[in-house]
Amino acid sequence: MQTQTIPSPEECQKAVRAWIESFPVQPLAYLHSFGCQLNAADAEQIAGVLTSLGYGRTEDPAKASLILYNTCAVRENAEDRVFGTLGSIKHLKEQNPALIICVTGCMTAQPQVAETLRRSYRHVDIVLGSAAASRLPSMLYAHMHGQRHAQDITVYEDIPEGLPTQRTSSFKAAVPVMYGCNNFCTYCIVPYVRGRERSRQPEQIIEEVRSLIEGGCKEIMLLGQNVNSYGRDLGGGMDFPALLRQIDRIPGEYWIRFMSSHPKDATPALMDALLTGEHLARTLHLPVQSGSNDVLSRMNRRYTVEKYLSQVQYIRERDPQFSLTTDLIVGFPDESEADFEATLRLVEEVRYDNMYAFIYSKRTGTKAAAMPDSTSAAEKSERMQRLLSLQRRISTENNARFLGKTVRVLCDGESRKRPGNLTGRTSENLVTEFPGDPSRIGHFAQVQITQTSGGMLSGHLL
Ligand code: SAM
Ligand code: SF4
Ligand code: F3S
Questions:
Q1: How far is the CA of 75 from the centre of ligand 1 (A)?
Q2: Quick one: DSSP state of residue 274?
C-alpha cells in the first residue's frame, strides 16, 4: 500500500540517482536471488537497475547499504530459507539503521507473505512482487521520502523490455522468451505470482540473442514456464519451433538450450527442430511430474502417460541416445503406492539422463492445497529415496555410453574438488571434468572420456 503520491518512474529514477550521488562514498548493494533461472534472469535486470542508480556491488551483506533478496515461492522450504535469511540479517539493521532491506519476487507476490513481512519482519523496508526491476526506483523514492515498509505486491503483467541488464557470466546467458503461465497445475503457485502468459516479440528476442553471440556468448538458455506456448498471444504465426529455427540461423559458435517444455504442447515440429538444428543442444527437458494417469489428471497436467511416452518414442526412434531430463513430484496428495510404482516404471522406460525430484509441498491458494492427503511424510521421503536411487543407477548406466568417446564441452569453471581440473558441460548438459588451464573457461573444447559415474564424466583434453 502506498500512502503518498509517487512521481513518474523517470522522475523517481532521477531523484534516487541524485540521492545516491550525494553519498560521500559510493553505497554498495548486496543482491541474492533464490529459485529458478527466470528469477535469476530477473535479478540480472534488478542488478542493472541498481547499477544505473549508482550503486556499487558487494558479496558481503555486512558491507551493503542496500540488501535485496529476490525470492521463490515454489515450495515451502524455499520460503523458509528466505524467512531464515531475513532473521539472520536483523542485527545488521540494528547496527546500521540507514541500511535498506528489500524483498522482491514470487514469494512476496503472495498477500499473506507480504502481511507476515509487514507484521513480523519490521526491519524489511521495501516489499515488491515479481516484475520488480522496473518498480525499484519508485519504491526507493518512497523509502527515501520516509515511507516505512513501502509495499507493492501487484502482479504486473508487463514485459520488461529495455531495462539495463547486468549479466553474471560473459559466456552463458539466459534470455526469457515469455513470462507468466496459464496452466494452473493444481500444485503450483507460479500462475498466481507471475500472472498470465505473455510472449516477447520475436524480433526483440532474436536481436538480443544475436548481440549476445556477437559479444562472445557461447550458450544461451531460452526461458519460459512453458516455452511451447510461445507466440500464442502474438497472433503472428510465430511459434516456438519457428523461433528456434530462426535463432539457429544466426552464425557463430554457440549452443541454444531452453526450458521448460510442457509435454501437453511438445509437438513433432519442436522435436524435429531439436533433432536437426545446428546450434541446438541435444537434450530436452520434458517435465513429466508423475507416471500415473490418475495423479496427472488430478494435477491438471492435461496429458497422459501414453501421450508422453509417444513423444519420447518420436524422438528416440530418430536418435536412440537422445538425452531427456525431467521434473517429478513425489507424494502428491493421496498418491498411492501403485501410483508411485507407475512413476518408477516410467522412469525405467524413459531412462532419463537426469531428473529434478521434489517432495510435494502444499501451496496456499492452489487447488491441491484443499485435496485430502493420507500419505505420511515418512512414506513420501521413503518414496523419494527409492526414486533417487533408481535415477542414480540409470544415470550411471547412461553415462557409460560416453566411455572412450570424444565429446564437445563448453568449459565453464575450475573444479572445486580437484585442483588443476576444469569443469564443462556436454551438449546433453552432463558435467565433465578434465585437467586444463583456466584460460579455456568460456570456450568449447574436445574431451576424450576415460571414466564415467552416475554424476559425472571425466577425461582429458584433445
Ligand atoms: N513450468 C515448468 C513445467 O511445468 O514444467 C515448471 C516450473 S516449476 C518452477 C519447477 C518444478 O517445480 C515443477 O516442474 C515441479 O516439479 C516443481 N513444483 C512446482 N510446484 C511444486 C510443489 N507445490 N511441490 C513440489 N514441487 C513443485
Ligand atoms: Fe507451474 Fe504448471 Fe505453470 Fe509449470 S506449467 S509453472 S508447473 S502451473
Ligand atoms: Fe521460479 Fe520460484 Fe517463482 S521457481 S517462477 S522463482 S516461484
A1: 9
A2: H
Q: Identify the CATH class of 403-461.
A: mainly beta
d(CA 341, CA 292): 8
Architecture of domain 172-400: Alpha-Beta Horseshoe (3.80)
- 115 by DSSP, 3-state: which? helix
Tens digit of each residue's pLDDT (9 = 90 or more) over 28-39: 999 999 999 999
CA distances from 40 to 93, 167, 173, 175, 220 (A): 26, 10, 10, 11, 14
What is the residue type of 237?
G
Query: What average pLDDT does range 427-443 have in this prediction?
Result: 97
CATH class, domain 9-152, is alpha beta
Whole-structure pTM value: 0.96
β 172-176/219-223 pair status: parallel
CA of 188 to the centre of ligand 1 (A): 6
Cα–Cα distance for residue pair 95/195, rounded to 1 Å? 38
Domain parsing of the chain, residue ranges: 9-152, 172-400, 403-461
pLDDT, tens only, 220-236 = 999 999 999 999 999 88
Identify which of 255, 261, 251 has the alpha carbon closest to the alpha carbon of residue 177: 261
Which of 389, 293, 285, 276 minimizes the C-alpha distance to 332?
A: 293
Ligand closest to 35 (CA) is 3
Kindly state the DSSP code that residue 7 receives in the 8-state scheme: -
Please tell me if the CB atom of residue 225 comes closer than 6 angstroms to any atom of ligand 1: yes
Range in 62-76, 132-146, 273-287, 420-434 with the lowest mean pLDDT: 132-146
Compute φ and ψ for 26, nearest 5 degrees. -60, 125
Q: Cα dihedral sign for 294, 299, 304, 305?
A: negative
